[in-house]
Amino acid sequence: MRILTFIVMGIVLLSACKKDSPKAPEKADLIAPAKNSECTPVQDDGANSSLVRFNWKAADHTENYELRVKNLNTDAVFSKSTTGTVEIVSLDKGTPFSWQVITTNSETNTATESDVWLFYNPGSQTDHVPFPAEIISPVQGSTAFKDINNKVSLKWSGFDLDGDIVGFTVYFSAENPPTDLLSEVKANVDEVEVGVVSNTLYFWKVVTTDGKGNISTSDISEFKTR
C-alpha cells in the first residue's frame, strides 16, 4: 500500500512540474491605415513625403512586432522591429503601399504574418492607379485539386479608389513569369477557369486596368496540381 502511495505521489509531482508547451505568437489584427483606403497623414515631411501612423492590436504570446511597408511602385520595403503597436513612418506622397505586421516571441521559431492591407498616401494626384489585384484562390504555394473536367478556378479581388476599373487580364503558364494570355474579362468578373494537368507547378498573375488607362499588376502566384 505504501509503495502504491509513493507511485501516485510521484505521478502527481511529475505532472505538477511539467511545463506547458511554448505557444506560437498569434496574428496581429491591423487597424490603420485602413484597407483599400487613402490614409490621413500625421503631417508633411518635406515636399514629397509625409508621416503616416500605423496601428495594430496587441497579439497574444507576442514579444516583438515587425512592421513591413512596401512601396507598390518600386517594390522597396521598409521594415521596423518594435515591441509596441504604433509606428510613424515617412512615406512618398501620391503613392500606393501595402503593409503587414509579423509577430514573434523568444520561446518558438514561429513567425506569424498578419493580413496584408493596401492604401494610398495622398499627394497632388487627381486620379488613382488601381491597387494590384489580391490573389484569393488557389492560395499562394498551395496544392489545387482539379474538378471532373480537369479545370481549376482562379479567383482574385480588385479595388480602385476611383471605382473605375474596366477590366482584368489574366496570365497563366507553367513558366515563371507567366506570359501566356489566359483571359481578358470585364470589371464585374473576378474568376476564370483554366485547364490543367496533374503534378504540375503553375504560375499566374492579374493585370488591372482602369478607365484612364492606369494599370497595376498583382504578385505572381503559384500552385501545384494534384
Q: Domain count, please report it.
A: 2
Helix content: under 10%
Name of the CATH first level of the largest domain: Mainly Beta
Question: Could you please say which CATH topology of the largest domain applies here?
Answer: Immunoglobulin-like
Characterize the largest beta sheet: strand count, sense, and whether it forms a barrel.
6 strands, mixed
- CATH architecture name of the largest domain: Sandwich
Assess the beta-strand content as a share of residues: over 45%
What is the CA-atom radius of gyration, in angstroms?
A: 24 Å
Give the CATH superfamily of the largest domain. Immunoglobulins
Q: Overall mean pLDDT score?
A: 93
Total number of beta strands:
19
**Coarse morphology:** flat
Which regions contain 5 or more consecutive residues with pLDDT less than 50? none
Q: Tell me the distance between the termini.
A: 60 Å
Order of helices and strands: HEEEEEEEEEEEEEEEEEEE
InterPro entries: FN3_sf, Ig-like_fold
Protein name: Fibronectin type-III domain-containing protein
